[in-house]
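Table 4 source record.
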Amino acid sequence: MDKKTWDGVIKKFANAHVLQTWEWAEVKLKYGWKPDFHIWRDGEGNVEAVALILQRTLRVFKIGPQIQICYIPRGPLLDWADENLRKRVINDLCLYAREHKAIFLKMDPDLVIGNGIPGQKGSEENELGIKVREQIQNEDWHFSPDQIQFRNTVWIDLTLSENDLLMKMKQKTRYNIRLAGRKGVKVRLATEEDFSLLYRMYVDTSIRDGFIIRPKEYYLWVWNKFIKADMAKALIAEVDDEPVAGLFLFYLGKKAWYLYGMSTLKHRQKMPNYLLQWEAIKLAKSLGCEVYDLWGAPDYFNENDHMWGVFRFKIGLGGRVVRTIGAWDYTSLPFWYSAYHQIMPRVLNLTRTIRRKEIQNELNLN
């Protein structure tokens, strides 16, 4: 198996995801994960399902026994409507976890269980997604207390014309896009030389919005790798040649994702983020994408949720809420699974406290 072959295979799946690519495996390999490219074939040798399985060996606080964990980010990829195939894949993953003596094997496929906000007009459930969720519950998978990716998100339908895309947006959003243009906001493609600047903006954003980011080297590695693989592009919004916001658009097959966004407080009244997203939508459409995933919505649709402001911005762009099954864990070692989820939150809290101070120092140095 090589990069070209693997990426070519996963692109053929309707639910192909950038986090299942060879490039993502290379990123995770650099940071302590061992990738396993798993393929299921039919009797004639045709590929029926695939999964990038990430394996990691940990030793909590560098003492005690080594533990093994496995994770399939946004996978496995298969036709979930094929009951025999999904049973085979799920059973094989359970066996895989047991054979590798993993505390758990986590999967969080892009499998939709519903559209829209539950209880609101237009909301509907997806029978297939619900059926699969029931099946994996019956196979002793557990809804994970550690949800790595967003289980809810917002998708924009890029098959519409540009005019129809604008008309689906909230009136205020359309107004702000036009306002940004009138106020002199310009959007351009970023180059590698801009990445350090974009990272500084990302640091600023993380402090302002209260989330933790990784060190600079990580993002430069990810951004360069995917842009060179023609799976990502970066955009910068400027006012009078001064960068004020940016985003990274990832794409694979018929889908695009808004994975990283950053901004400053400068010129916010000129609405640069609105024009930036509109240019990203047009760019994704020009790349042949049919869906633009805005990457994240609240777990519970409550105005007190810390994501509510960002969520309103995304909904204003004309997207629809998409709810997926989230992350599920399988374990054959229940004692160690329970111990892991008691200890690791404390380890992560300590790590985040240290990293938060490092980020603040980076901001002060800039």
